TrEMBL record:
Comp. bias regions, Acidic residues: 223-261, 269-278
Name used for this protein in its record: Tetratrico peptide repeat group 5 domain-containing protein
Taxonomic path: Bacteria, Bacillati, Actinomycetota, Actinomycetes, Micrococcales
InterPro entries in the cross-refs: TPR-like_helical_dom_sf
Region (Disordered) residue spans: 203-294
UniProt-listed SUPFAM superfamilies: TPR-like
Domain of life according to the entry: Bacteria
Entry-linked Gene3D superfamilies: Tetratricopeptide repeat domain
Length: 294
């Protein structure tokens, strides 16, 4: 492992969880977790290799399984994501992974399982942001079954028109716009998408790109006053004001002399196994992985 990665780039909580391993193993796992996040954008395959290796040798630690599951989810490997995130949930009890599990079930063509997850006891333990994300997934699951009106009603929650913890929920707006489009309510869909593009200064959505605008550079969110919130609500109630009824409804480079090592076996759901003979090679040494590492 190159000297540029020490493993100490992980956040304090993750490092604390790794104390359940012996010191040498914890250090190795931490380095591979940092490498996995650092390589995610430029070399997803290598990133997955590092995450898998970390889970292989530190598989009884929740944050390790969670890391592998999150990276698998973002790479579109939904079967691995479901397995790893469910295991992480059992180990840690952290419910905020539920939206990713549910969305992975949708990705596997099982929207009914996503709906079951939303109705489970675990869902009651989520924070506000995760709960909103789960509602977006649930709405998508209803849409997968062809029930667009129920999908729309699922997203017609207070967070659609009010800030949550001082922030507008731009991802919720885009999801709502997508469903309006599917319901042939094109003008309304464009207005919600435009509102998202105007408000999303952090690049959380593709709203600007879809409207043909430049991608916004990240900037602090404007501190709007309450009267501006009222204007947002009023802007989307024109139909009601007019007397209309609202609807409810190159292959990886290697250092000279490096050889391709065999891929480690998949981790089991509950225990560590024998360590593999070789660790995956880093393709590049990141300048800094602290921001993306957990």
């Amino acid at each position: 492992m190159p000297a540029g990665i020490t493993g100490r780039e992980l956040d304090v909580d993750a490092l604390d969880e790794l104390k359940g391993l012996n010191r040498e193993t914890a250090e190795r796992v931490a380095k591979h977790m940092v490498a996995a996040f650092a390589l995610e954008a430029e070399n997803p395959e290598a990133s997955q290799g590092h995450a898998k290796y970390a889970a292989r040798i530190g598989g009884r630690i929740g944050v390790v399984r969670e890391t592998y599951g999150i990276l698998a989810y973002r790479a579109g490997d939904y079967a691995t994501a479901v397995r790893e995130l469910r295991t992480a949930l059992r180990i840690t009890g952290r419910c905020d992974v539920l939206p990713m599990i549910a969305d992975s079930e949708r990705g596997l063509g099982r929207p009914e399982r996503a709906l079951d997850l939303a109705a489970s006891d675990d869902a009651s333990g989520m924070g506000a942001d995760a709960a909103i994300e789960l509602m977006i997934v649930v709405a998508g699951a209803y849409a997968d079954t062809g029930d667009i009106q129920t999908a729309l009603r699922t997203l017609e929650i207070p967070a659609l028109r009010h800030k949550v913890d001082g922030r507008w929920q731009v991802r919720l707006w885009v999801a709502y716009a997508d469903l309006l489009e599917r319901a042939d309510r094109t003008d309304e869909a464009r207005r919600w998408l435009t509102l998202a593009a105007d408000t999303d200064t952090e690049g959380l959505t593709d709203a600007a790109e879809r409207l043909g605008r430049p991608t916004p550079s990240q900037a602090p969110e404007p501190s709007w006053e309450d009267d501006e919130q009222i204007l947002v609500v009023d802007a989307f109630e024109e139909e009601i004001d007019e007397g209309q009824e609202p609807e409810t409804q190159d292959p990886s480079e290697q250092e000279p002399g490096d050889e391709q090592e065999p891929e480690p076996k998949e981790p089991s759901e509950t225990e560590d196994g024998d360590e593999p003979q070789a660790e995956p090679e880093l393709v590049t040494t990141p300048d800094s992985a602290a921001e993306d590492a957990r």
